[in-house]
Amino acid sequence: MMNIRRPQNFGIGLIKGARRRAALASVTLVASFAFVFVGATVASAHANLLSGSPVCTNGSWVVTWTITNDFNETESATVTGTSVQHGTALLSNITPLSVNVGVTVNYPNNPLGTGTVVETLPGTDTGTVQLNISSLWSDQFSAPAQGTTTLPNICKAPSTTTTQSSLTGNANPVSSNGTAFDVATVSGNAGVAPTGKINFYDCFSTTASPTNCSASNGAPVGGDVFLSHGQSTTTSTATSATIQANAAGFYCFFSSYSGDENYSPSSDSNSVPECFSVVKAASLTGTQSSLIGSVNVTPNGTATDTATVSGTAGVAPTGTVDFYDCFSTTVSPTNCSATVVTPTPTHIGSVTLVTQSSSSATATSPSISATAIGFYCFFSVYNGDANYNVSSDISTTPECFNVGKNVSVTTTQSSLTGTSPVSATGTAFDTATVTGNAGVAPTGHLTFYDCFSTTASPTNCSTSGSQIGAVALSHGESTTTATAKSPTIPVNKAGFYCFFSAYAGDGIYATSSDTSSTPECFNVLAAATTTTTQSSLSGTANPVSSTGTATDTGTVSGSAGVAPTGTLTFYD
């Protein structure tokens, strides 16, 4: 038998005895294991029983051999040689790891002693391993023995795979060209760097980090990637292909090492350096109303709101914009929003964005009616998408406008102008024309007034004058002007007359009144009179008398159709 070549120091004791523990005997062996059994002279043959138990440990087979004395006698024997045989080859590279030196005495029934030898074999060995021992007992009886055990497969060293994603943490902003990759490091302690290939996988979720990412639920990232180690004898690395990380959500890598002739397979088990999240980018919503500032109302007036949503992720925002409008008759509703209480917002509609550039998109609201006089404000909300967060317009200046009435112009024309002679049946009336430019004729009514003075023209005539009446406008086929004629007034007295008219306005046109007195004022002049007189005495033949008297009779005649009135002054 071939002995083990490496010199080793072993203190190996196997003691057999009754009712006492014997002291441990230690011997120094060269290329052999010595088991000393302390006892009396044997009276019969002796034998050693051998059994082996292999365990794969860190890439080597560790075989624990148990040597048992099969006789219940107090004998001593020295193992004079050992060798390990694998198949037909004797193994000379055995490294004893440890020797269990001890005594087992089980009183009183079976006082058999055992000893163990632990030996290390290369992990690449497979098949049957045989331990051969030779021993010489104290009575010079030679007792060789053999034991076998089976190495079922190659015993590989464990490998450790750690990974690091190129993106980490939870604050990676989304980008249209966002990418990520994974770097795996495989470590081993077999004295050589791991070789072979590694496979990468990735998992994605929009709701939670897929920390359970594995080869069974992940998507393969490229194909096999072979390890490289440079000058290292302990570690090798591999880098995955890049993946697209251009959508907001949660990502995790997973890597699996397939092992090689020296190392067992392994995979990463720590999700912290493997997982990251991509967050939605901020969006900016700007809006522009089709009407701004102060505008005049029109019969079919409408307005729309256009929202422009901009992003910074290198991709245009998508999705929808919700539009609202608010209205007030008293003050601009600059607080308009989707949830404001007063005034109550009206949801106009939800409109899909249309891409305008690589970073912006627009949407235009449905039209709203703007025919009521008052204050209007739009409000828009972008609902976000896979890459962008929700946003809304924050500036009211381009969103608000007020609708006011159009200017109307009232002009008038009296039926009498300049100066006119008085007449007992004299009358006059006023005609007013109201003009507008809203594309529709003014409607509503005019109120007429007249003023009179015997001394001077009442050119300041206004609503403080005598109201003649209110008359509805009529416009016929006209889309710009409407007219009204006042009731007739008597002008049978000499003096100064002026008309005044006031337009009350309507839903489209503001109030107005005539501002020029020239066509509104006239003067009625007194008619010419003829005065004739007749004395009660006439001629030259009237005799004198102490009681004589005379009178004068005056007759005033006029052509105005009414008898002159007033007084005559007589003189003699």
Description:
This protein is an all-beta fold and 572 residues long. Helices cover 0% and strands 45% of the residues. Strands 10, 13, 14, 15, 18, 19 and 20 form a 7-stranded mixed beta sheet that branches. A hairpin with an 8-residue loop joins strand 41 and strand 42. It is rod-shaped.
List the helices and strands and how they pair.
Layout: E1 48-57, E2 60-69, E3 77-86, E4 89-91, E5 95-100, E6 114-122, E7 127-137, E8 145-151, E9 159-165, E10 169-173, E11 179-180, E12 182-188, E13 197-205, E14 219-220, E15 225-226, E16 235-239, E17 243-244, E18 249-257, E19 266-267, E20 275-279, E21 283-289, E22 293-296, E23 302-303, E24 305-311, E25 320-328, E26 346-352, E27 354-355, E28 360-364, E29 368-369, E30 374-382, E31 391-392, E32 400-404, E33 409-414, E34 418-421, E35 427-428, E36 430-435, E37 445-453, E38 466-472, E39 481-485, E40 489-490, E41 495-503, E42 512-513, E43 521-525, E44 529-535, E45 552-558
Parallel strand pairs: 10-20, 22-32, 34-43
Antiparallel strand pairs: 1-2, 2-6, 3-4, 3-7, 5-6, 7-8, 9-12, 11-17, 12-16, 13-14, 13-15, 13-18, 18-19, 18-20, 21-24, 23-29, 24-28, 25-26, 25-30, 27-28, 30-31, 30-32, 33-36, 35-40, 36-39, 37-38, 37-41, 41-42, 41-43, 44-45
